[in-house]
Amino acid sequence: MNQFDPIKQLRAAERRAARPPEQRKRARITEAFFGRFAGLPLRERQARSLAYALLHTPVRTGGGPYLAGQLYTEYCGDLGGSDFDPRWRDFDCNYVAEQRARREIPGLAELTGADRDGKNPSWVTYASCAPGHVGWRYEWILESGVTGLLRRIRRSYRKADAEGREFLEGCRILLEAMLAWNDLHAKKLEKALRSCRTEVRRRELRAKLALVRRVPRYGARTFHEALQAFHFSYLATMFENPYGGNGPGRLDYFLWPYLERDLAAGRETVESATEKVAELFLRMHERNYCKDMGIETIMVAGSRPDGSSAFNPLSEIMVRVIMKLAVTTPHVYIRIPENPPPALLELAAEYLKDGHNMAQILSDRSIVPALVRGGVAPEDAAMYMCGGCMELSPQGMNCDLLFTGFFNVPKILELTLNGGICLNTGCRMLSGYRRTLEEFNSFEELYGAFLGNLKTTLGFTFRCMDLFSEEAARLRPAFLLSAQVSDCIERARNLNDGGARYNDYGSTPIGLPDAADSLYALKHAVFENGIAGKAGLLAALQNNFASDELLRLRLLELPKFGQGDPEADGMAARLFRDVCAIYDGFSNRFGGKVKPMLMSFVFSPIAGNALGASANGHKAGVPVAQGMTPHSSSMTCGIGTAMQSANRLDLGAAPGGVASMWDLSGGLTRLDVLQGLLRSFIATGGQIFQGNTTSVEELRAARRDPESYRHLIVRVGGFSAKFTALDPQLQDEIINRHRHCV
């Protein structure tokens, strides 16, 4: 990077992003849909309206010496929001699906609460569709160009039914719009070249012009062409699907063959390839500037479909570029294959130590078998990616409903103990449920009632997912994305209408470690050893231990998940297994599954705020544990013991992924120690490793003086973000997490 200064380019990108050109995407789609194309059939109307908006979006050919094209994120793929145009009421899939859910699913409203931002103290389930969180098969455009996709569409068109032909015609319209938008870039470059008088600038313009004349229309021949082809697929596909979590996935895997050939032929060097990767990352950062929670994820290394290691020089280039830039888009995660080369573990440890808290390390040894157990073919499972935080799916093969609900598991236990009444509000949240702790004659009877309530209420959210799927299929056909998802073209259906190879949803049960600790406390203290009477404990919970501090301390002292106690860990294993079985017992409208995805995102303090006092000894409002990591207050026996407790669970029962959070300090941040921790984590069956290495003192300093720490990045829960931009409750949760040290 001698001539290409990435930090200088970063500052320039952020200056441009601070004042982006007006794109007017929402207004243009509205104008086209209700104006010039209003008389067309729905599918054609949808496609032509989006194509119109794309073709009237400003063309940008600058921003760096290597790539052409730029768009800025506008989250208006579904046209609701504070400025909701009432004409969209019948055409906005989220709005229509939510209205249907309220009418068709009795009991759901009282679980979600009226406050849809999740801050209502009665919150149990955040049952709302957040489309996205998948990747797409842009390698098809790299290999044979948009023209190759158009040929496949023509072949499928001849065999499709009338509905399928409407869908395929929409794909054709949008793919041709992508090419037309690309041609506008060529015209702008031609105009700039005619007026340019500087030879260095003329060389840059000629190189860009040669790129856009070739790709993405035709297949790429070089690494530079492949980067540009990917970039245009990325811009156009994200223009259509501006949702968090959609991302490039295995970018190093698909680009490496091009770079490998160019390095051998002398067309590229490691330095020149590094500069081009840096520019691509800067363009992604510029597009998402100030939007940390967009979470567009790149997965590097990992396994090939035959199980061998896919780690290559481009994998390392991408990790080192993101470490140098220290930006939160894209997120770069490392997959560790079954038999990792030592250099990959060294790189992963370095990334954890010096990567500005952006690292997330995933173990193929545990994840690939879990995906296979969940119904994914082995060769497809090997191609998994994270859609955003950690939503696992085979890249470009799944529908995009992997982020359709967060469920507060310990809240259901609270309601089961308290006759369906919320301890925070006194409101009834379980219709028809009246039993309290005092009425159970045994722990097994209590556990059965809790599991029954859990199954019933989870069933509400699963049904809600089917409604979102139905309306997404009808009102959000995602033509560009679907054209790059396996089997959609051949089946002539969009990715949410049965077109995708896998029609699996995703949902997150939050707070399992907290619920497990409370269940163990109930079993031990109430039903076995008489430490607390039923009426006494229930009264203590109802008054938030205000006059029962001694009882609270005794409950806190009981063994907890993460301390290596066989019974406490066994309760966590039982609950984990039973919750996963509830998920596994549901089939959606296409016969697919709902994958349990064990993470917390930003919901750890929100879910905690929804809780009253708990039998584990926590007072009301304590943030819940991160993913399946033992609770911070329970990790008293060292990271090794806590890690073994977490990884002894049958993690293969959760094909959506199981995240763990290990915040580290002191000697544990040494490179050799980190490598040892990673080896132990993988050997004991862990799936997803993440954590912070920034000191608590520095985080507290950032709270006192935010302006001096504007660029401080922290690991939140499946994603990284600028610390000073986070909600104060989330900042507190990160500061107060247990720090493992030696």
Q: Key terms for this structure?
A:
five-stranded mixed beta sheet; 742 residues; alpha/beta; four-stranded mixed beta sheet
The outline comes out as globular
Radius of gyration: 26 Å
Number of helical stretches of at least 4 residues: 28
pLDDT below 50 for ≥5 consecutive residues: which ranges? 114-118
Mean pLDDT: 94
Fold topology:
Elements lengths: L5 H13 L6 H12 L5 H14 L37 H12 L3 H5 L12 E2 L12 H19 L4 H34 L3 H16 L8 H18 L10 H15 L4 H18 L9 E5 L11 H13 L5 E6 L5 H13 L5 E4 H10 L4 H4 L2 E3 L5 E3 L11 E3 H9 L25 H33 L3 H5 L4 H4 L13 E6 L1 H17 L5 H9 L6 H9 L8 H19 L9 E3 L6 H7 L29 H9 L11 E3 L9 H13 L4 E3 L5 H9 L8 E3 L4 E3 L5 H9 L6
Parallel strand pairs: 2-3, 3-4, 7-8, 8-9, 10-11
Antiparallel strand pairs: 1-7, 4-11, 5-6, 12-13
Helix pairs in contact: 1-11, 2-3, 3-7, 4-17, 6-7, 6-9, 7-8, 9-10, 9-11, 10-12, 11-12, 12-13, 13-26, 16-17, 16-20, 17-23, 20-23
Task: Describe this entry's structure for a reader.
α26 links the parallel β10 and β11. It is globular, with a radius of gyration of 26 Å. The strands form four sheets. A five-stranded mixed β-sheet has the order 2-3-4-11-10. The longest helix has 34 residues. α7 runs antiparallel to α8, α9 packs parallel to α11 and α16 packs across α17. Helix content is 50%, strand content 6%. By secondary structure, the protein is of the alpha/beta class.
